[in-house]
Amino acid sequence: MPIYAYKCDSCGHTKDVLQKISDAPLTVCPACGAEAFSKQLTAPGFQLKGSGWYATDFKNGGSKPAASTSSSSDSAAAPAAAAAPATANS
């Protein structure tokens, strides 16, 4: 269950609340009772840093299929080129 940050626009009271995604948002401030309690937009509680799976698997993932396709056509031409000098030498 995610933790949502709430703030009262009337008195400035803040509170973090553990709620289900399907729960209705709170509207009544527990400190002053005004109906000015609203969810705040906050940054996520974690950061992805370092050389983890996301950096190695997905950072350059878009260019890998194109590179493998072009290298397979190059590798098909390379044996023919390598075979030509070998037959010329014999």
Automatic annotation (TrEMBL):
Enumerate composition-biased segments (Low complexity): 65-90
Region described as Disordered: spans on this chain:
61-90
Boundaries of every Putative regulatory protein FmdB zinc ribbon domain copy: 1-42
InterPro entries assigned = Regulatory_FmdB_Zinc_ribbon
A matching Pfam family: Zn_ribbon_8
What protein am I looking at? FmdB family zinc ribbon protein
Q: Which organism is it from?
A: Comamonas guangdongensis
